[in-house]
Specification:
With 171 residues, the chain is of the alpha+beta class. It has three helices and eight strands, in the order ααββββαββββ. A hairpin with a 3-residue loop joins strand 6 and strand 7.
């Protein structure tokens, strides 16, 4: 059995910070966990397929029937809530921003969404491609354009604003 640190026993987030080494694609779930503080069931990105630092990212979300947030949609068909889909796009965008070596010890705070449109429902069995591109990037703030696709069709799109901050306990 692995020994846990005192901080881990208290429930304090202590994931190892990423090194400045270049990232190797595709990024799998453990690589994503090293970048984002989210954990199941709140980690909504399963894999990163493409990444151009400071430009764009393409992630993947595999939607399964046992996800706890499914709601009954039209005709009783369980659908992914629009807010969860938006959060998945935001998480892919956060990986893009935090992939830059000077941002790897920071956190991305989701500040707002604009012009979001939901085009069609996302159901169990769908593979959602999460695409984000940098619209504006400053040292502590920025905005991203996001688009989610299933089978090549846009299911959601919009713009997200974020702020960069220090991780709690960072000096």
């Amino acid at each position: 059995m692995l020994a846990r640190s005192a901080a881990a026993r208290r429930g304090v987030y202590t994931a190892p910070l990423m090194s400045d080494a270049p990232l190797k694609l595709p990024l799998e779930i453990e690589d994503i966990k090293a970048i984002l503080p989210h954990r199941s069931p709140f980690l909504l990105v399963d894999r990163i397929l493409e990444l151009e630092v400071d430009r764009r990212i393409v992630g993947l979300k595999n939607v399964t029937s046992n996800e706890r947030y499914f709601i009954a949609g039209p005709g009783g068909l369980p659908t992914m809530p629009a807010s969860i889909l938006t959060e998945a796009m935001a998480q892919a965008g956060a990986v893009l921003i935090l992939s830059k070596p000077e941002n790897r010890s920071r956190l991305v705070y989701f500040m707002g969404i604009d012009r979001v449109r939901y085009r069609r429902p996302v159901v169990a069995g769908d593979q959602v491609l999460l695409e984000c591109e940098v619209l504006r990037l400053r040292s502590k703030m920025g905005s991203l354009g996001g688009r989610a696709r299933v089978d090549g069709k846009v299911v959601c799109e919009g713009q997200m604003t974020f702020a960069l901050g220090d991780r709690p306990g960072a000096a």
